[in-house]
Predict the structure.
Amino acid sequence: MIFEETYRPLLAQLRAEGLYRRNFGCVEVELAAVASRTGVRGEKLRETHGDRLGSFLNCSGDSSIERLVTEPLDLVCVATPDDRHFAAARRALQAGKHVLIEKPSVLRLQELDELQSLARQRGVLAKVVYHKLADPDHKKLRTHVVDGTLRHINNGYCSLLEPKQISGQQFAEWIDGRNPGTYVAVHYIKLIDFTFGSSLPGGARLARIGATGQRGLVGPAEGSTWDSVQLQLIYRYSDGREAAFDIHTSWVTPDNFPGYVEQEVQFRFDNGVWSAHQRKRGVEVTVEERTPISMKYTPNHHYNAAFVEPWNERSQRGYGLEVIRRFFEEVAFVEFGGPADERTHRLREMSDLAYNDLSADRPTVAAVQALEAILQRHAAGQPGCMVSVNDSLGGLVLRAPGAVEPAILYPNPV
Ligand SMILES: NC(=O)c1ccc[n+]([C@@H]2O[C@H](COP(=O)([O-])OP(=O)(O)OC[C@H]3O[C@@H](n4cnc5c(N)ncnc54)[C@H](O)[C@@H]3O)[C@@H](O)[C@H]2O)c1
């Protein structure tokens, strides 16, 4: 899905136009190879878009990634289901390729440690895509925070509700034992952490994580597959004040819902309130026999949409593509942005970018790892667990109600 929505149109544009910036010149970009489970989609892609993407190697099966990385590639983008990001990204980094991973980067800090260390050893970039950070509304929110217009966040809520077709069709192959929080709450976990937390000097730091959820639609009521999840993140400032965020997610919203994804946020500061409806951005459209199933009443044309430009060219654009293009620019800058003996300096400059580098994804992965562990305990008959971050016993420490012994999910500092 995400390949079709964002990578494919971007790769077609890059092949047609090249990638240009004054500091690295014009760089040719070509899709050299794809890897997938069965190869069927790769074949279809060749048929439908081969004229725009060129000839590429189509690898499939258990050793598809092994085969892919033997090609002379500069970078690899990983868009497998989230519990299969780690193996693919590790193999690509081992082979010395720059890597971009779809969100969430990985599910455990132990995996993140390994990828970070491989990227350092091999001298390549290892990054993750969070397109919400490139949404103009969120850029403005962060600008207000950085400029001190909005001061000291105290609490907030976010909701992101996906239609039933996601759990019932799109992800049916890998959904067993999974939850919608890991997959979509992570958009807001990152937005909160990046905007109010770890990217800011003196920003709040993640302190505790709690979660609960509902079962019974996607799987059995006592099973381990979740319909909806409510996550709470508690952040702490160095002066002892705290901030709390509730993130509600679901993948069982009716398919005839007016928008593709219901998304809403509210953030409350010492001196202000920010409320945003990410779906109702001002356009409402109705078309007989199309809305709201094949076309939605309240589209978001800023994320990603196909247009006829005023100069009559067809285009596809939006921040969903922009954020991936930016990664290509970062790689081009490292490889072609100056003399070879200054590459290390350029690599460091790009790795220091907190919005997408894996080294800055630690609080987000910590929240995801805690969420998964809490839901797993819940499904095993132990609801109400809480995970603390960087306490005296370890980086991620899970405590169950009534249990004496805590479980250390991750021993080192987050
Ligand atoms: N940024 C966003 O808004 C957004 C939206 C949707 C999905 N995503 C992310 O993109 C990723 C993929 O989601 P999707 O909806 O595109 O899924 P999808 O099911 O449409 O595609 C997954 C692809 O991975 C391939 N695959 C699965 N296991 C593999 C393996 N072991 N080796 C090689 N290939 C394998 C499948 O063949 C398939 O082509 C997920 O991490 C998801 O979180 C991001």
